[in-house]
Design a protein that fits this description.
3 domains; 5-stranded antiparallel β-sheet
Length: 349
């Protein structure tokens, strides 16, 4: 068996970590090749016999003196206890500094207790740590941004719902009452009052038009069918109003949080509106799948060629809506091959 003493010099020469040995006075007795290279020297002889503290860090990076009495690396020679540090700066031969992590342990030498050092350049470690902190900070900022966007959308959804309800229960009901009163008044007119009957007829028509327009306005703000029957029924109703044929395929659905439901509805509505306005399509297919994630697919047979990265505010708004609820949006739109918009929105169980 080979004695450990015979292989130890080879081990010290081959390890990538810097190893130094200093005597009880702090003078360098031994430096392995990695330790020589770490400070930019050419040979161990350039370091042997010199004060290790003066070589490593007689000065701080700001140019101020670093007294040896404050150096913890030399402490094991007196205390017999190991030391460790991650916040040290060592000086290279050319005067430049680098951050270092180091370990120092006492070692018994023929003339007393010395110290063995091990250290490495921590520049890469610190860069990785800085990059990790920046990634964490960026992720936190993105999470906070999505949370804020979600709160805004939930607030807008509540306002839209309340506004649509107020229009329906307030102004629309008053107009309906007015319409009924006008019809009753027309029926009570005696024969021969043709001028008054004609005037009431016009008023009845205007009242009906106002009711229809108000109902359409309330539907655009927040469709009542979404509140009463849910997302699938609201999308079916949307398809019936579409000026080009629109077919809906749904697995029936399940109850969803109102904010998710309204957000998903307006994703479909915006996608359909884009297809009608820009795609020159003759058909739109809409599918809804209610699983662990709500899967929304809106496909048209139009001209295609849509690029999400350069798209207008419509598709950008879609992406923002989906991202606010931690979802993903993809667009497939080969030129001449129609456009398919796929949104996946996580849904709490």
């Amino acid at each position: 068996m080979t004695p450990i003493g015979a292989v130890l010099p080879r081990i010290l020469k081959s390890v990538p970590q810097a190893i130094w040995v200093v005597d009880p006075e702090g003078c360098i007795l031994y430096v392995n090749p990695a330790g020589v290279a770490a400070l930019g020297y050419d040979d161990e002889s350039e370091l042997r016999g010199r004060q290790s503290h003066d070589v490593l860090h007689a000065y701080r990076p700001d140019g101020s003196l670093f007294p040896a009495s404050e150096c913890r690396m030399l402490a094991p020679a007196g205390t017999g206890e190991p030391e460790h540090g991650d916040d040290e700066w060592f000086m290279r031969r050319d005067g430049s500094f680098f951050p270092a992590s180091w370990w120092a342990a006492p070692i018994d030498l023929p003339d007393g207790r010395g110290v063995v050092y091990s250290f490495f350049d921590a520049t890469e470690v610190r860069e990785l740590e800085r990059a990790r902190r920046e990634r964490d900070a960026e992720r936190i900022r993105a999470d906070e941004s999505r949370a804020a966007q979600r709160r805004i959308m939930e607030s807008v959804e509540a306002v839209h719902r309340r506004t649509a309800r107020d229009l329906h229960d307030g102004a629309q009901q008053r107009l309906v009452s007015l319409l009924i009163g006008l019809r009753l008044a027309k029926e009570l007119l005696p024969d021969g009052e043709s001028a008054a009957a004609e005037l009431l007829g016009h008023s009845i028509a205007d009242a009906q038009t106002a009711i229809d327009e108000l109902r359409e306005l309330a539907w655009g703000i927040y469709p009542s069918v979404l509140t009463l029957k849910g997302l699938a029924a609201a999308v079916e109703d949307l398809a019936t109003r579409c000026p080009i044929p629109a077919v809906v395929d749904s697995d029936g659905g399940r109850p969803l949080p109102s904010a998710v439901e309204s957000n998903a509805y307006f994703v479909v509505a915006e996608a359909v509106t884009n297809a009608v306005k820009h795609a020159r399509a003759s058909r739109i297919d809409i599918s809804l799948e209610f699983g662990e994630a709500l899967r929304i697919r809106v496909a048209d047979d139009g001209v295609g060629g849509v690029d999400l990265t350069t798209a207008g505010s419509g598709l950008t708004g879609l992406a923002d809506r989906v991202a606010a609820f931690d979802g993903t949006l993809t667009v497939e739109s080969p030129p001449g091959g129609g456009t398919t918009i796929l949104a996946l929105i996580p849904v709490p169980a």
